[in-house]
Amino acid sequence: MIVIVASFIFLIEKRKKSRRLIEKTIPHIDFDQNSNELDLVHISDIHYLDPSLTDYGQAFVRNVEKGDAKTVRYIDQVLDSFILEMIKKKPDAIIVSGDISYNGEKASHQKIAKKFKILKDKGIDVLIIPGNHDIDNEKAKSFILDEEKRVDSVSKEEFKEIYSEFSYSDEDPKVIGRDKNSLSYMYMINNFQCILMIETSCGQNDLHISNQTYKWIEKMLNIASINNLSVISVTHQNILAHNKMFISGYKISNSSKLIKLFSDHNVRLNLSGHMHIQHISKNEGVLDAAIASVALYPHLYASIHADARGSIEYESQSIDVEYWAKKYGWKDDKLLNFNEISKEFFIDCTKDQIEPVLNKINISLEEKREMMNFVIDTNLFYFSGRMKEREDLNIENINYKRWKKYGEETFLISYLDSIYMDFDSSHNKFEIKM
């Protein structure tokens, strides 16, 4: 009996000591204790290419612009428009979930850090993690005339140095903890909210969470729980499956353990990117909100409103490049009509992928035209998370049936099936209530 009592007392004292140690990690910052609300903005997959690395000539068109519809040609202007919009909006923090650079170019990272400094100087916190494009990238190149050349990328240490003002400084008082095995950290943004930034793009954490990092994550969640702090997590890759064709290479390979941890610690929202598609997925009470690439039409970012009770409101919206162009007196018609220009570029890139498939199908030109338009509309509304706005886009549509009939051996029908098997078609707006 004495042994049992002694063991019980030992456990109580051990927990008290552990709690005291945990409480010491909370920063001594004079947060507004009356603050009950928080506004965040989430962007991802900027794929910024510093203008000094290209003349937008033949090499750029061949290697960059003929890619996956990212408007890299105008990404400098898109980002400047975003910064202007954020200065007006004044969120408490902006979260950038990786693939900041086009392919890890040092010059691109340095330029974008200067742009984010504008926001920092306006009192807006900027929280960053790298994506799979950002560090030690052998594809870091310049594109001048008809020639592509290797340029410097960045190491993990250089990445931390470049973004030292954006939560990678060891002296940042709001950082509760850092993972020694990755570029992950937890940031206390006000008196009730933490942001858990989980890096899964480098070394042993490449598309994977190591055992060491999992131990660190659990420690951070315990710190938050003991101190009654809410947590929103952030990853570059997705933590849940969003589309059966976007799992391998897109979802963190061992994220099921993360979902269990989040469910146990009441973490109900993860912000991710990587797919370039606006999409929401849910499992075990945890939502994974993947924001579309900000470089891709319609150039989305997410606004997130949280309160001290734990309620969250989420909505994605487009950057207004045309407003920025008019405000600063641009005469370029493509910037003054950017919404239409960007949309047409997206459509043209879709056509380039679909035409070779349709050319192999022996049907009338009119049927081909209608099948093409069906895929274009599908892409426009699926990538922007707005399928709900087009009730005619469904498996009963004659052009879906044509693709099933004539395109059975093509990748297109698998792609379309992966989209039209998704019955929850609202992916731009949601609320999480207590």
UniProtKB/TrEMBL annotation:
Domain named Cyclic nucleotide phosphodiesterase C-terminal is located at 320-424
Q: Which InterPro entries does UniProt cross-reference here? A: Calcineurin-like_PHP, CNP_C, CNP_phosphodiesterase-III, Metallo-depent_PP-like, Pesteras_lmo2642
Instruction: Name the domain of life this protein comes from.
Output: Bacteria
Calcineurin-like phosphoesterase domain: from which residue to which, for each copy?
40-277
The molecular function terms of the Gene Ontology recorded here are: hydrolase activity; metal ion binding
Q: Which UniProt keywords apply?
A: Hydrolase, Iron, Metal-binding
Q: Which family does it belong to?
A: Belongs to the cyclic nucleotide phosphodiesterase class-III family.
Q: Which named protein is this?
A: Serine/threonine protein phosphatase
What organism is listed for this UniProt entry? Peptostreptococcus russellii
